[in-house]
Amino acid sequence: MNTGVEFGVAFFDSTNTKDGGGWYSMNGERAMRFNGFSDLDARHVWITNLAMSDFYEQGLSKAAHLRNSSFFHQTLQHISNDCGFQQGSSIPLVVEQLSGIAARVMEISKLCMPGLRILKSLHDSIYDFIGLDDIKDDAACMYQPEFQAAFQENSYVAGIYWPRGIGTARLSMNRVDFAEEVLGYPFPIGAWHYERSNMSVDDFINLDVPAIACVEVDLKSANKPELLAFGAQMSGTAVMREWITQPEAAMLKMADAKIRISNILRGSAINDSVELPSLLTGDALIRSSYSAGLVAENYLHALTSKRYDKRTRNSRNTYFFPSRAVYLKAVDRMLSYSLARQMSDRDHIVSMYGFGAINILVTEDLFAEAVKDAADMGFAIVSSKFKQE
User: Fold this and answer.
1) What is the pLDDT of residues 24-83, one digit of tens each?
2) If 0-12 CB within 10 Å is exposed, 13-18 middle and 19+ buried, where does residue 64 land?
3) β-pair partners for 354
4) Distances from the Cα of 188 to the Cαs of 44, 73, 211, 271, in angstroms?
5) Nearest-5° angle of CA 340, CA 342, CA 346?
6) Which residues, including other chains, have CB under 8 Å from residue 195's CB and lie 6 or more apart?
């Protein structure tokens, strides 16, 4: 169903929107100046370069026609970096390119999912379109502390020294391929029950039903323990990790970490897999499209993210952790770790990984070597402040 709403991109000159305007563009057309957010046509939806915190600080959270920078999960800054724009690039050109991408993402999304209504962020809109209601339907509601302790959103390799002249290169796999690989793994459905067990890690990994295990993890004997980033988040803060899934157990075993199991929470059934919309996977040109990749990543994010729980608005725990999301996020972490380890084995310093992408630290003189190694490993996109020759 076509809602008639068009999406554009608006770049504010400053996060303090009261101080002035910026540039806007629709459908990749020539960027134009605006003097303030009130100049932006309220009949359209504008994806901005503002963070959610900026919305609240500037009193814009009630502005129905404005969206924050992470509307596509990847921020507009990440997307512009992927497109080869760097610090100092012409803002009007950046805005024109981003608005063209936004238009194609919307077009592909609606072709893939007829009837999709994009009113929230793209991944939240896809979640609603699929018809999921985890808070109501997921039997994991009985065991939220355990599933929360098994969930890790991203993997930040802490304790890295950043000397002068170091920059970050972000290496990304083809997003359609990666989303298809993650969603090809089975995930849990149905009831769960406790079972006291000190089974071996191999027995746990090879169970014929999904399960999560209460564990003690000893990283001292592991190969490159910092790369496992067990419990380390991108913000630099740690999350308590007392439970793990079978995919993450396989990842830890691969790194020779010591794992002792004391309890397991055993599932009753699995869903074989989820398929991406056929339009994304059935044509080689669309599969290689950057805009189609963003649609695929948002589809994956819809199925692997924690959900805001309005019922707990006055509670400290405001999120619900679906068993499917916990399990598939662990698959994402396992597959992304494998990529990170391969780059680490080539003597690159990995600082973060997840969603089929890794960040490595490079100097300008070593950037060309990093690009070559990334190409050898099949990474589709390399973005950095350093220019590729």
Assistant:
1) 999 999 999 999 888 999 899 999 998 877 766 666 666 778 898 999 999 999 999 999
2) exposed
3) 357
4) 40, 25, 8, 6
5) 110
6) 263, 264, 265, 266
Shared domain check, 145 and 124: no
Q: How far apart are the first and last CA of the chain?
A: 45
Domain end point (choices 106, 130, 154) = 130
**Residues 6+ away with beta carbon under 8 Å from 17:** 36, 37, 50, 54, 58, 60
**pLDDT band, very low/low/confident/very high, at 1 (cuts 50, 70, 90):** very low
215 and 252 Cβ atoms separated by less than 8 Å? no
CA separation (Å) from 139 to 147, 192, 385? Answer: 11, 7, 46
Contact 11, 17 (CB under 8 A): no
Q: Can you tell me whether residue 31 is helix, strand or coil? A: coil
pLDDT in tens, 36-48: 888 999 899 999 9
DSSP letters, 290-306, are: HHHHHHHHHHHHHHHS-
| Residue 177 and residue 106 in one domain | no
The pair of structure tokens assigned to 384 is 């950095």
Decide: 144 and 320 in contact? Cβ < 8 Å: yes
Do residues 181 and 334 make contact, with C-beta atoms less than 8 angstroms apart? no
Give the residue numbers spanning the domain of 29: 7-130
* DSSP code per residue over 32-50: EEESSGGGS-TTSEEEES-
Q: 148: part of which helix (H) or strand (E)?
A: helix 144-149
Tally of domains in the chain: 2
Helix, strand and coil in the chain, % to nearest 5: 40, 20, 40
The 10 Å Cβ neighbour count of residue 194 is 12
Q: Say whether both 65 and 167 belong to one domain.
A: no
Q: Which amino acid is at 345?
A: D
Q: Pick from 143, 135, 275: which is nearest to 211 by CA?
A: 143
Question: In the listed set 75, 109, 130, which residue is the last one of a domain according to the structure?
Answer: 130
Evaluate whether 251 touches 173 at the Cβ level (below 8 Å): no
The reply to whether 211 and 304 lie within a common domain is: yes
* Long-range pairs of 251-255 with CB within 8 A, sequence gap ≥ 24: 251/330, 251/333, 251/334, 251/337, 251/338, 252/201, 252/217, 252/222, 252/228, 253/201, 253/202, 253/205, 254/338, 255/222, 255/223, 255/224, 255/225, 255/227, 255/228, 255/341
